């Protein structure tokens, strides 16, 4: 009847008129709604009661999960079995329900009829599927005893003539229910009449100003007002009828439902009530075999990128490893070729200063080389970390006519870990103009284990030309921090004509301090100019899979700094801090796992970066996974600058994608997205990899799902701004090939303006 009335008077199920013609039709809609209120408030009567199902059914729903609890009958005799079912429907499209146990909060007087007569757990439920649990209960002895006593009392009352009184009592109860229904109906009518009056007044007022400047800003113009009035009336009617219209809310990680049913057993009211908690996990996306792609990977720790004159990309890495590629995603290993290019003489010269007790191979303590082509020398120059025990490390320079060698020793740039006995073996006397070790290197020295309080471990070089043609080298690791020295472009070695001050951020021998210090984690510094800024990349944490390794970015208008992050934090650490999860430095990514990844990716770090001939910028790093090993491989992601000039990394391995200068329209961007919010607080010790949530970008600019808010595109640019749960993220949108597949989709990468947290999104192209 309700549906027919709504159709007759032009009201849709959402309360909006289905037709616009007929100037009085909206009044009919109000009248229909009023009638509905009266009808739904009144007792249903015998005909409606006859339509009720034989059993008792209760359905509850929230966040796409629906649970229906049903009994096979509404009334049972003493000793009769109660058969009931619990049906759970996972209405989510991209999330599974995790299997779990649940409890019964109210089953007094009822017992399971058998060992499995009362199910108390449900299995995993994939997206769009359902499960049904069946149970059988019976009344316990107490309930049956009460039933027997009541039956005896009823028989005695019949003998004494009190049965008539009982019937009368039931009639009074029915009468009371009828009166209550009438009162509710009257109340509904009164409230509805008041609502109609208010709407009529408002309509009259709005009609007089309908041609004003705001008249055209509403969909449907004046005709929409009748629909709104009908919707309000219908809302009131449904509320008076005991119904509640659903309200859109943000999706949750879990939801608790409490379905229950009441029924009669042996003449007494009993209840079955459950408490069921549902938690969700992203539905794994199984890529079809024909859509899969396999890139050729190589193992190269701490990769330094270089593009040769012939257009081939090379990386060199720790333990004298390397590889080449023509496209940045398919790599060929060059480990043996590069190692064989080091002659025995070169190996011995590299080892002359170091003492390493842990290495079992000649290359085992040679770390993190950086390669550059020196035009003045006409040579490929490799700057290599020769790491030793107790900070006794140095950075050497090697030269070759080809990227792959053979390499020759050219000299050492800087030495660390010296004491009074070894001071003269370094170039420190030449730099400082004294044969006696200065006291500062003794007070904070290797002999008393305090070298790292002030001075760097001389490893992890990054050599680059700045905008003025100077050749600079950043280096250092943990302990004293990251320092910078000027090199002589003609020789590639240290420029001894440059002097440095002695203060908290500078030392006459080690040069300018640009970041870190006080044993705060930080290594693998790399500096690359992109656009108007020099960007300083540093890896926080320890390099193991469970070490929390992650890349942080700071920027400056000058290569010497001062470097700051998007929140204005300095790159310096003048006192110790456990900074792995700290909000200092823009973190490009943390541990994460897209729905189609079999394992998560973690401990991404010790990167290099470069700007290609076409102006595209890239970050090159090694990544580990959550597979339980320390295996790693090289990855290259494209870098972009958001509107504020901060770097954001593409969500997937680069595969020739191009940032569209003119951007996209809203219709090209909307849809369902997997999103990974790289929250700073991450359980890296247990290999946590952030799982994607789900949001929907809608045509009207709103965002719904696990996060709610809005988004906007800047016309004529690739810039996108998203507001999720009150936080604004600034980034770019583009089309990319989904990693590990041949499929393309729309993605975005953005940085939180208030929290400098990275946000990635990838539009869903399949529900499975």
The shape is: elongated
Task: Write down the overall mean pLDDT.
Answer: 83
| C-alpha termini separation | 40 Å
Could you give a short account of the major beta sheet?
8 strands, antiparallel, barrel
Q: Beta-strand level of the residues, as a percent range?
A: 25-35%
| Estimated radius of gyration | 37 Å
Biggest β-sheet: strands ordered side by side in the sheet: 35-36-37-38-39-40-41-42
The helix content is 10-25%
Low-confidence stretches: 1-53, 152-251
Q: How many beta-strand elements? A: 42
The helix-and-strand class reads alpha+beta
Tally of alpha and pi helices? 12
Detailed description of the structure:
By secondary structure, this protein is α+β, with helices and mostly antiparallel strands. The strands form nine sheets. An eight-stranded antiparallel barrel has the order 35-36-37-38-39-40-41-42. It is elongated. The two termini are 40 Å apart. Mean pLDDT is 83; it is low at 1-53 and 152-251.
């Amino acid at each position: 009847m309700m549906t027919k009335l709504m159709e007759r008077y032009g009201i849709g199920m959402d309360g909006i008129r289905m037709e616009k013609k007929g100037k009085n039709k909206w009044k009919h809609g109000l009248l229909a709604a009023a009638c509905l209120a009266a009808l739904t408030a009144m007792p249903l009567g015998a005909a409606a009661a006859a339509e009720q199902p034989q059993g008792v059914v209760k359905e509850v729903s929230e966040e796409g999960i629906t649970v229906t609890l049903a009994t096979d009958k509404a009334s049972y005799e003493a000793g009769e079995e109660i058969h009931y079912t619990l049906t759970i429907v996972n209405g989510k499209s991209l999330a599974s329900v995790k299997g779990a146990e649940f409890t019964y909060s109210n089953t007094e007087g009822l017992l399971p009829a058998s060992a499995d007569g009362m199910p108390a757990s449900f299995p995993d439920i994939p997206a769009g599927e359902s499960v049904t649990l069946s149970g059988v209960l019976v009344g316990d002895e107490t309930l049956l005893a009460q039933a027997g006593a009541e039956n005896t009392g009823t028989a005695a009352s019949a003998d004494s003539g009190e049965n008539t009184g009982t019937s009368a009592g039931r009639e009074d109860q029915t009468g009371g229910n009828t009166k209550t229904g009438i009162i509710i109906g009257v109340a509904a009518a009164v409230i509805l009449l008041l609502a109609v009056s208010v709407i009529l007044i408002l309509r009259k007022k709005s009609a007089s100003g309908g041609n004003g400047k705001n008249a055209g800003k509403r969909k449907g113009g004046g005709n929409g007002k009748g629909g709104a009035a009908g919707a309000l009336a219908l809302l009131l009617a449904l509320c008076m009828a005991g119904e509640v219209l659903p309200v859109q809310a943000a999706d949750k990680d879990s939801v608790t439902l409490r379905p229950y049913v009441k029924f009669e057993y042996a003449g007494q009211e009993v209840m079955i009530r459950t408490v069921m908690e549902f938690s969700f996990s992203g539905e794994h996306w199984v890529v079809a075999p024909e859509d899969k792609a396999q890139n050729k990977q190589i193992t190269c720790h701490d990769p330094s990128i270089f593009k040769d004159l012939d257009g081939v990309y090379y990386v060199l890495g720790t333990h004298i490893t390397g590889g080449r590629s023509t496209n940045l995603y398919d790599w060929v290993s060059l480990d043996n070729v590069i190692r064989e290019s080091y002659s025995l003489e070169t190996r011995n010269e590299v080892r002359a200063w170091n003492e390493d007790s842990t290495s079992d191979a000649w290359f085992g303590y040679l770390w993190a080389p950086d390669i550059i082509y020196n035009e003045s020398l006409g040579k490929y120059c490799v700057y290599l970390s020769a790491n030793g025990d107790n900070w006794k490390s140095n950075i050497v320079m090697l030269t070759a006519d080809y990227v792959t060698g053979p390499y020759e020793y050219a000299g050492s740039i800087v030495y660390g870990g010296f004491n009074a006995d070894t001071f003269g073996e370094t170039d420190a006397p030449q730099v400082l103009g004294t044969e006696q070790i200065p006291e500062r290197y003794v007070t904070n020295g290797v002999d008393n284990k305090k070298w790292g309080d002030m001075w760097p471990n001389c490893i992890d070089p990054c050599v680059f030309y700045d905008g003025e043609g100077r050749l600079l080298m950043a280096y250092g690791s943990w302990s004293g921090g990251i320092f910078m020295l000027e090199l002589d472009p003609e020789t590639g070695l240290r420029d001894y004509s440059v002097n440095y001050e002695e203060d908290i951020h500078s030392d006459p021998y080690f040069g300018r301090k640009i970041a870190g210090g006080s044993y705060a984690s930080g290594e693998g510094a790399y500096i690359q100019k992109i656009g108007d800024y020099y960007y300083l990349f540093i890896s926080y944490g320890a390099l193991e899979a469970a070490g929390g390794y992650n890349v942080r970015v700071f920027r400056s208008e000058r290569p010497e700094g001062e470097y700051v992050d998007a929140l204005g934090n300095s790159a310096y650490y003048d006192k110790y801090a456990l900074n792995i999860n700290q909000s200092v430095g823009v973190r490009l990514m943390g541990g994460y796992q897209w729905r189609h990844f079999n394992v998560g990716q973690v401990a991404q770090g010790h990167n290099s970066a470069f700007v290609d001939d076409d102006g595209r910028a890239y970050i090159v790093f090694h990544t580990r996974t959550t597979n339980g090993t320390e295996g790693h491989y090289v990855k290259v992601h494209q870098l972009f600058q958001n509107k504020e000039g901060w770097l954001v990394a593409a969500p997937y391995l680069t595969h020739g994608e191009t940032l569209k200068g003119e951007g996209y329209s809203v219709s090209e961007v909307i849809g369902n997205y997997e999103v990974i919010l790289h929250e700073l607080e991450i359980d890296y010790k247990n290999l946590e990899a952030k799982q994607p949530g789900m949001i929907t970008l809608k045509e009207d600019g709103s965002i719904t799902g696990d996060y709610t808010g809005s988004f906007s595109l800047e016309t004529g640019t690739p810039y996108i701004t998203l507001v999720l749960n009150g936080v604004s993220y600034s980034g770019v949108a583009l089309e990319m090939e989904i990693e590990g597949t041949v499929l393309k989709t729309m993605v975005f990468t953005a940085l939180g303006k208030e929290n400098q947290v990275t946000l990635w999104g990838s539009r869903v192209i399949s529900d499975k």
